[in-house]
Amino acid sequence: MSDTSPQGVLVCDKPQGLTSHGVVSRIRRWYGTRKVGHAGTLDPMATGVLVLGLGRGTKLLGYITGVSKTYLATIRLGSATPTDDADSEPDLFAEASALSAVTDTRIAQGVSALTGPIDQVPSAVSAIKVNGQRSYARVRAGEEVELKARRVEISRFSILDTRYSVSEGHIDVDVEVDCSSGTYVRALARDLGGNLGVYGHLTALRRTRVGAFGIDDAVTIPEDLDTAAPALTSLAEVARTLLPSVHVDAGEAKALMQGKTVTTDRSPQESGEVVVICDEELVSIAEVRAGGVLKSQTAFAIDLA
Question: Under which main EC class is this enzyme filed (predicted)?
């Protein structure tokens, strides 16, 4: 019997003030299914692209999480907050003389120093697990948390606009950031302010791209969930944006789903992972072995009748 529950991927524009889990809850109600997950958490204050998998689409989320991303952000120089963003009140403030010494040139130099491969210490209120518990939960419980630096890639860190309000104790810098998975833009704000000697935190964040999915692809979640839900992007279409693809016939697809190997000269590469497609249905994510042998790593049950 065919599975008639929703199967695919939805790109939504997360509203401000809603957690990523809150978005998942709304999508469950909107599409009438429990099997929904998201790829890459956005903080409540952030807006923008959040990719969700429904049904077998959840199996693709781990691959989507690992792609590069683009953000628009506003960094406020002159103060710091416990969360490195506007979700908490400033508790550290720059000296007026230090803030007055900040110039466009110094800001540009600070941004340049944070561009390329860098070792970044994530924000203590991140979702990284420490001994099995989320770091933010430990911080909220009053613990001091020190996270290890991790290597990330900031491929672009562009200054879009700078607004000086030194008499009011801050300088706002609008930026656009292209970065690898695992990058914390809050930490970029913190570190830019720290390197300039004036503190820094994030006051706005909007994710405009996750891999091949841009903000123009995103749907807005209506307040009235009785509104007809839009069609999902097919698993095959999404998978092709993540890995090279190889097409197989129905017999080969069935063998792969049964855990058997298939030999083919149609693979676009000699080794590594590929997505296997049969009649525009995603069959599996498979490993290419020597001699063009395909071995399924993640199977997607499809109806081959």
Answer: isomerase
